[in-house]
Specification:
Blueprint: H1 5-19, H2 33-39, H3 45-60, H4 68-77, H5 97-110, H6 120-128, H7 132-145, H8 151-160, H9 166-170, H10 176-182, H11 185-191, H12 205-220, H13 229-237, H14 241-255, H15 261-272, H16 290-306, H17 313-321, H18 325-339, H19 344-353, H20 370-379
Helix pairs in contact: 1-2, 1-4, 3-4, 5-6, 5-8, 12-14, 12-15, 14-15, 16-17, 16-18, 16-19, 18-19
């Protein structure tokens, strides 16, 4: 059954709004001015548009319980309407293994349906076994890391930057929405214009000053950021605390990094070509028990990828060692006291530098873990580790790299 001109007009308006969202439907799109302006109805515009599109779905046939995004893409595939897809330059953030797996499930659920649909979180929960609260938290983190407006945009960006593999997820039968997106010229341009962890690739003068201050402070602490330094930097520099917080917020948006000031500082150090020069704490005579070794190993596994302290790291380590947060904190503070270090981050550096924690047991690649590479680089340099015999040939200054 052919579509009426009115149905084509409304469906085309929804398609235009979806095109501006990288080709996928998102929650609240039917309230977009592009759609609402065409309705001229005293009824609720969302309900009016929804009923009209459901009727379009019935006319198109062959679709079983179609979502709005699926209906629009079916109309596009049949030539009833067109869709002009636009995409910003995508970011390729560093994702944890859990985040990447979750993103794959989100793509498998959302793309065949053309984006958001009622109950999609429940479907992801069934596939992953995760609670809705955990799913919402991961959505928020991924949206933040990709600097996107919604999870649908983040999923498309993940395909563009190569984080998601369409062949592995869908085999030879690509969903129609994915075909339309990948065939668009803006998508092809986006795959050639990827920002590695940054948005815009430029820092303001104020952001540079704040970043350099933190980079230097991280180096003095052995390569890891720690709590309370924003206030310390403010006091030492004479800058206003709000000035520093404001610049850190804009940096977090540019880098797509949430709640990780240490990781963010390492990204800035790469952009500014100013490496973190880790100063390693000297060894002192101290004995550690088996539990303390285990605690420091798990602390290193959690803190090094994050570049140091972040809110919630205690809980993350506690889950790994199966101790309460308070018990973990007591053990960690005892290690800090024994090593004569200023904080747990510096104690982690102490254990790695003096081979009390073996790098081979951390399951971390120094080339992909900037904080660990800063420590390893310092271990190779006599100037930062004068009391330790060489285990490596000293590199020339031009050969020292921060990280890839």
């Amino acid at each position: 059954m052919p579509l009426t001109e009115r149905e084509k007009e409304i469906t085309a308006a929804v398609a235009e709004a979806m095109g501006q969202n990288s080709g996928l439907y998102y929650h609240g799109l039917l309230s977009d001015p592009l759609v609402v302006g065409l309705l001229n109805s005293n009824r609720f515009p969302y309900q009016c548009a929804y009923e009209l599109l459901r009727n379009v779905g019935r006319k198109l046939g062959s679709l079983k319980q179609p979502s709005i995004g699926e209906i629009v893409h079916e109309a596009v595939a049949r030539g009833e309407i067109g869709m002009q897809i636009s995409m910003p330059s995508p970011i390729k953030p560093q994702l944890t293994e859990a985040e990447q797996r979750f993103l794959e499930y989100a793509a498998i659920v959302l793309l065949p349906k053309g984006g958001h649909f009622k109950g999609y979180r429940g479907r992801i929960s069934e596939l992953t076994g995760m609670t809705l609260l955990a799913i919402n938290n991961l959505f928020r983190n991924l949206i933040y890391k990709f600097n996107s407006d919604n999870i649908e945009q983040a999923v498309v960006a993940a395909f563009a930057v190569g984080i998601l593999d369409s062949d592995r997820l869908f085999g030879s039968e690509f969903p129609k929405p994915l075909i339309a997106i990948m065939d668009s010229e803006p998508y092809r341009r986006a795959t050639q214009n990827i920002s590695i962890g940054v948005y815009g690739k430029r820092l303001t003068d104020d952001e540079k000053k704040v970043s350099i201050a933190l980079i230097e402070r991280i180096g003095l602490n052995g390569g890891l950021f720690w709590r309370g330094w924003v206030q310390d930097v403010a006091v030492a520099s004479g800058w206003n605390h709000d000035y520093i917080d404001g610049n850190l917020y804009t940096l977090s948006k540019k880098f797509g990094i949430l709640n990780r000031k240490g990781e963010m500082s390492y990204q800035a150090s790469l952009l500014l070509e100013q490496p973190v020069i880790a100063r390693l704490p000297p060894r002192i005579e101290a004995e550690f028990n088996e539990l303390e070794f285990a605690v420091m190993q798990e602390s290193a596994r959690v803190l090094l990828p994050a570049g140091g302290y972040y809110k919630g790291f205690r809980e993350d380590v506690s889950q790994r060692i199966h101790y309460s947060t308070d018990h973990y904190l007591l053990i960690a503070m005892n290690v800090v006291r024994k090593t004569g270090t200023a904080n747990l981050g510096q104690a982690v550096t102490y254990f790695i530098a003096h081979e009390l924690t073996l790098i081979s047991r951390l399951s971390l690649d120094p080339q992909r873990t900037p904080a660990l590479e800063a420590i390893v680089t310092a271990m190779k340099n006599q100037r930062y580790f004068p009391k330790r015999p060489y285990l490596f040939t000293l590199p020339k200054k031009s050969k020292i790299k921060l990280y890839k």
